[in-house]
Amino acid sequence: GVLDDGVIAAQSRQRLQTVFRPKAEAAWHLHELTRDLDLAAFVLYSSAAGVLGNPGQANYAAANAFLDGLAHHRRSLGLPATALAWGMWSQASGMTAHLDGAGPARGKRDGMLALPSADGLALFDAALSSTQALLVPARLDLADLRSRPSDGTADAVPAILRGLVGPSARRTARTAAAPAGQTLLQRLAGRTPQERTQLLLDVVRVQVAGVLGVANPATVDAGRAFKDAGFDSLTAVEFRNRLTVATGVRLPATLVFDHPTPAALVELLQEQLRPEEAPTAGTLSVLDELDRLERAMTAGPADDGADPAERAQQVTQRLKALTAQWESLHPDPSDDLNLDTVTDDEMFALIDNELGLS
Prior knowledge:
By secondary structure, the protein is mainly α. 20% of the residues are buried.
């Protein structure tokens, strides 16, 4: 097995080939070269990543899913085949020796514990006596999974395991408590700037700790770069997803690269989560809304999969329509000026208005 992890946008034909060659291609060659032999066993070392999915391993998951399909194919031909979709082993291998504590910690957050070698060997022996083409020898923390919500949040139980763990008590409790809860924006309202900064920093620290497996969120250094703290492209995306749920703000996948420290990220959230103030009557409220619109337009495109050209056309059309509506409701008095009779003061006022100085 060979890994070449990366988010979907970073995948390429070469990266797919790097992972597929020792997995899918090698297995198919073995299948063709041994299909006429009287084999006692044909065991494929697959991975739970192909069954459960794993962030950043789309290529690896697909290659292992091919092995799972090959086992079923061989069984349909009357040939021996067993695909073992292994979970992570506790003993380091050539594929996992480079991982630091973040790798096992991420697996534990997914509800999977490291498998001791003795247990793995026992499961291998048991698998050879099974009639199933595909088995998943892995060590699941069922107690932890049962305590999680199943509502699509960052800590939710993977969909494929929900039938195994049963209803989530935590989800029931959260649902019952939801009406009494407050959004982050509501919690920020009425606080001083210093209190808002501290509250947002606490939120960021909790999510950093959850991604990196830090026991005490308060120990997360607000000035330390995410990269230096151990973030990579995979943990960056996981962090963005968690923070999006926690704040209700749509955040870009490049969040930790554009705002490289918790303190810098708090500044962004301060801007995005500015508590609503009572609007001033008349034109001033419209100008306030235009300020908000300007901030939204300069914040960059939303990362929602929409076609950028189509979105730009829609925004342009809406802005033109609003401009036309405003001009029809509020005609410019300067349009009625007669240049033959206009006074000097009126002319200077017109110039200042046109230049945006008034």
